[in-house]
Amino acid sequence: MDGPGGSPVPQYHLPHMATPTVYLETSFIGYLTARLSGDLVTAAHQKLTRVWWDEKRHKFALHVSGFVVAEIGAGDPVAIEERMAVLADISQLDIPPDAERVGRALIEKRAIPANAAVDALHVAVAAVCGMDYLLTWNCKHIANAATRDDIATVIRSLGYKPAVLCTPEELMGEDRDNE
């Protein structure tokens, strides 16, 4: 693929896998491990997250980045331990050099606001690493119907294929085993 000015853009895709790839963003892990919320909507999201984790995760190759590890490594020590335990069998992606450039472009083009720079980096790493999906509960800056097209346009303009930005509910899919 060519970048701006026709120069080749390096691709940092993982080796081709038959299993779809998923980048787990920090909010997913937070919803998975947090105590059940008293807020009805948040509690429903937490339950959906746990159902996805228990019933669907085996259908995907799961990945995180150092940005996720840094974010879940902050706060209450007991909560940190619970969040880190989730990562035991999950691959940590190397952060490609081009991810920062893509993240900056997402902010400069106002697809993601400047005060959400780490969100831009999650989206950038997922795209530059060739992830199929980015799984999140961050519907303000990432899985937002009003900004998904803008995010995808910026990523494509830089020569990458954007990951599908979605919530666990959207990635539940049908159980096709009975077809």
Task: Give a structural overview.
With 179 residues, this protein is an alpha/beta fold. The protein has one domain (18-169): Rossmann fold. 41% of the residues lie in helices and 10% in strands. It has seven helices and five strands. It has helices at 26-33, 40-55, 66-72, 77-86, 98-108, 117-128, 148-157; strands at residues 21-24, 61-65, 91-93, 133-135, 164-166. It has a five-stranded parallel sheet with strand order 3-2-1-4-5. Strand 4, helix 7 and strand 5 (164-166) form a beta-alpha-beta unit. The longest helix is centred in the first third of the chain and has 16 residues, at 40-55. It is globular, with a radius of gyration of 16 Å. Mean pLDDT is 89; it is low at 1-13.
Q: Quick gist of this model?
A:
This protein is of the alpha/beta class. 41% of the residues lie in helices and 10% in strands. The termini are far apart.
Keywords:
single chain; 179 residues; alpha/beta; Rossmann fold; five-stranded parallel sheet; 5 strands; 41% helix; 10% strand; globular
The whole-number mean of residue pLDDT values reads 89
Helical fraction: 40-55%
Beta-strand percentage? Answer: 5-15%
What is the ordering of alpha helices and beta strands? Answer: EHHEHHEHHEHE
Physical arrangement of strands within the biggest beta sheet:
3-2-1-4-5
Q: Say what the CATH topology is.
A: Rossmann fold
The CATH superfamily is known as 5'-nuclease
The description of the largest β-sheet is: 5 strands, parallel
Task: Supply the CATH class.
Answer: Alpha Beta
- Name given to the CATH architecture: 3-Layer(aba) Sandwich
- What is the overall shape? globular
- Tally the helices: 7
**First-last Cα distance:** 38 Å
What structural class do the secondary elements suggest? alpha/beta
